[in-house]
Automatic annotation (TrEMBL):
Source domain of life: Bacteria
Transmembrane segments: 143-165, 171-192
Protein name: ABM domain-containing protein
PANTHER family: SLR1162 PROTEIN
Pfam families: ABM
Species this chain originates from: Microbacterium lemovicicum
Domain ABM positions: 5-74
Alphabetically ordered keywords of this record: Membrane, Transmembrane, Transmembrane helix
Organism taxonomic ancestry: Bacteria, Bacillati, Actinomycetota, Actinomycetes, Micrococcales
Amino acid sequence: MTDAPITVAIERRIDPEQASVATTWMQAGTDLAAAFDGFLGSGWVRAGEGSDLWYMLYRFRDIPTLEAWEQSTQRSWWLDSGRPFAREVRVERRSGIEGWFDAPFATHVESRTAGSPLEAATTGPIVQPIPAAPPRWKQAVTIWLGFFPVNLLASWLLGFVPGFVEWPLVVRVLLTTVLLTPVMTYLVLPWVTRLLRPWLQR
């Protein structure tokens, strides 16, 4: 799905003695990314005071806009400038079904959303809670709880279409999936994940 927002979460090891330099470096990366089309926001957090473990995340509108940033000379220069004190140890992308569960690494993020420099200066950092990733089996249960009643209802309603049961199986499945995919993506799954969020995050 190239038209879905893509969130990239990065885990880095950073020299604790270079914390002030790292903070400036992180903000410089955010400012560079914000100038690119499709940028939706960015943020970072330390694992704890004195820790060398830092988490950074950023989000773009879709894969093409993300790749334009990731393959840019500006990002390459920025990464090179941080190599003396920053070491990347893990990268994770989330989109599509994973994105419904909205589960980057950290629990709290100091975040600046896309906008004008004046807006960023007046509003300041936003502390936004980020849930931990639910187990895969919980994700599977959530998807099934949304899909089963929708599929059942669609099968019952399509049974009223004259001659539908006599259509070739591949045509019936094609029509059903074409009808149900946008319903699941834009209506059912967002609603189900909001409803089950306390259980998913437990």
